Amino acid sequence: DADVTQTPRNRITKTGKRIMLECSQTKGHDRMYWYRQDPGLGLRLIYYSFDVKDINKGEISDGYSVSRQAQAKFSLSLESAIPNQTALYFCATSDGGGASFEQFFGPGTRLTVL
Amino acid sequence: GDSVTQMEGPVTLSEEAFLTINCTYTATGYPSLFWYVQYPGEGLQLLLKATKADDKGSNKGFEATYRKETTSFHLEKGSVQVSDSAVYFCALSDRSGGSYIPTFGRGTSLIVHP
After folding, report:
1. pLDDT higher than threshold 90 for residue B49
2. Which end is more exposed in chain B, N or C (fewer Cβ atoms within 10 Å of the end residue's Cβ)?
3. Closest by CA position to A23, among listed A49, A50, A4
């Protein structure tokens, strides 16, 4: 089984709808992240969490919110989806502390907002 | 702030050709450097890393050397295969604000033809 899972893998929705993307991990890592990927723009950080009680905004948090329900679960919500939130979304984890850690990524959720 | 600059793609090569993907960085501290690879339809996965100056990371025939004097971490492979077709991301992790939040380049697409 995959260490980092994301659901759904694909989602098509309409402008104004509320959407939740879910991420679960079995790696036992404290740190979790949400990124979006757009062609030519690479990965941009939306939110990150260092533990259940620690939530931080990334560079593009406007229009998004998150919930860290447990060490293993980190959800991303779009309260009122808009077309420019159409993108590929990735969840990632890391075993925190220090500069040498690597991140482990989920398979991604492709979101289309019509 | 920290930043990573990668050569723009796509890079198109024939099988068995030599590959170089350039990556330069700016950082306030002493970062660790990473190359991640994203195969079609998948999330990113770590390809190699280096944690201090003059270190060489290597994996699957790929290599990159941490050059502090030129602030570079160029990815090389002597003979590419069709299966190496993917998007490659250079990244750094630095103690910016004590958080070690990774910074990614925009990615370079590699296409290898038979």
Report:
1. yes
2. C
3. A4
